[in-house]
Design a protein that fits this description.
Shape: globular
Bound molecules: the ligand NCc1[nH]cc(CCC(=O)O)c1CC(=O)O
Domain Porphobilinogen deaminase N-terminal: 6-218
Subunit structure: Monomer.
Cofactor: dipyrromethane
Order of helices and strands: EHEHHEEEEHEHEHEEHHEEEHH
Distance between the termini: 56 Å
Strand order of the largest sheet: 2-1-3-10-4
Protein name: Porphobilinogen deaminase
Largest sheet: 5 strands, mixed
GO molecular function: hydroxymethylbilane synthase activity
CATH class of the largest domain: Alpha Beta
Mean pLDDT: 93
Length: 312
Amino acid sequence: MTASTIRIATRASQLALWQAEHVAALLRAAHPDLNVEIVHISTIGDRDQTEPLANMGGQGVFTREVQHALLDNRADVAVHSLKDLPTQSATDELFLAAIPAREEVADVLVLPADSDQQADLDSLPEGARIGTGSMRRQAQLLHYRPDFQVSSIRGNVETRLRKLDEGEYDAIVLAAAGLKRLKLENRISLKLGPPLMLAAVGQGALGLECRTSDQATRDYLAALNEPYTSAAATAERALLNELKAGCHAPVGTNSHLAEDSGQLMLEGVVLSTDGKQRLYGKATASMTDAEQLGRQLAQGLLDQGAAPLIDV
Ligand SMILES: NCc1[nH]cc(CCC(=O)O)c1CC(=O)O
């Protein structure tokens, strides 16, 4: 009998390649007889580094073309950064089959390589120029320091670090997960966590998709699902979905799972893009009710008046 082959589709960025290789290694470890190949796909999100992401066909700009490779049968598995994957699937033909163990969730502040600034938000100068295109990061920074001059920054992680080091910004905000995966942890100047900075829904996690009809691949991927990460991500995604917000909306979340009791705590914030308004909610439920928990928290935020803040 010949061994089965699984083809993993990935974008060409270093981070995407790392994530694809990571999933390949997990698949080989779980299924030693499986032959795992990697297929490279180029996306407009990667090719066009000039436009702000929000103007570029919006949601799913990083995930769509990798998904097409699955639908065209050029590959069998798509590896996504879960935070880039829209909560509403564009088609029933694709299935989110597994969410493996999560990397660190937090965002971090990065200072220029030659900076003599102290790494804390309070000692950055008045009007400091902060690079981040994320409405969620911008709004939470402005809520804390309205004097900051926040502006968009594009490109993959390495490009953003180069722009920072060339002096375009006094600091930038990135996900800890991306820096750690690229072995650039030494660039982390300061961890930004709750209550100041709540992360994006699904941040630090991977989402593994395959064709809904491909039962063999669904079974292979199921072995890579990590139940705690999966429950937390399910609650976070239900929150975003019920808010009818996309991954570019000023919505942040934090979740904590007590593994002994199986209780899942979920926090959410919705801000105005200028950071002046900030709505906060928190709820707890059994991890088996993750989806319901996310919806309930969303309802609480909508009752506080979240809808007009999201519709930006
Ligand atoms: N939108 C870009 C993106 N998508 C996933 C990551 C890093 C990994 C993660 O957050 O899960 C990044 C870079 C960043 O936000 O710094």
